[in-house]
């Protein structure tokens, strides 16, 4: 079982397969890589982690892409007597593409031009 590599913070959101939390690390080395001081953890119950296991495989295929959220890997932690399965993700502080598209009507550059 992995040692606790971070301090889990506020919940950023929830999707169909897990809860995403902000987490603070301190010069933590995970699989040979120093993690940023803030990461996003996408977690679910280990017993229902098949979808996240597939997601991590896909994200790792794009690990060199600047257009896809970086995934540092996955692990199982032991927190408050449960064993969440966690994806360790780059924290995207400006929100998701879906968040931005939802708000796009309020952005001037997305104003719809009407043709007459
Ligand atoms: N890497 C991240 N950095 C910051 N916030 C994130 C990150 N990943 C997810 N979030 C937040 O958590 C929410 C839920 O994300 P998640 O990936 O679980 O679900 P989804 O992609 O919206 O939907 P689903 O997984 O059900 O298709 C997002 O809408 C976003 O607000």
- Give the CATH architecture: 2-Layer Sandwich
Q: Tell me about the biggest sheet?
A: 5 strands, antiparallel
Structural class: alpha+beta
List each distinct ligand once.
adenosine-5'-triphosphate
Our Rg estimate from Cα atoms comes to 17 Å
The CATH topology name reads: Phosphorylase Kinase, domain 1
CATH superfamily placement: Phosphorylase Kinase, domain 1
Number of strands: 7
The level of helicity is 10-25%
Q: Write down the secondary-structure element order.
A: EEEEEHEEH
Question: How many helices?
Answer: 2
Name of the level-1 CATH class: Alpha Beta
Percentage beta strand: 25-35%
The outline comes out as: globular
List keywords for this structure.
binds adenosine-5'-triphosphate, 116 residues, two-stranded antiparallel ribbon, 2 helices, Phosphorylase Kinase, domain 1, alpha+beta
List the helices and strands and how they pair.
Elements: E1 7-14, E2 19-24, E3 29-30, E4 33-34, E5 38-45, H1 50-61, E6 71-76, E7 84-90, H2 97-102
Antiparallel strand pairs: 1-2, 2-5, 3-4, 5-7, 6-7
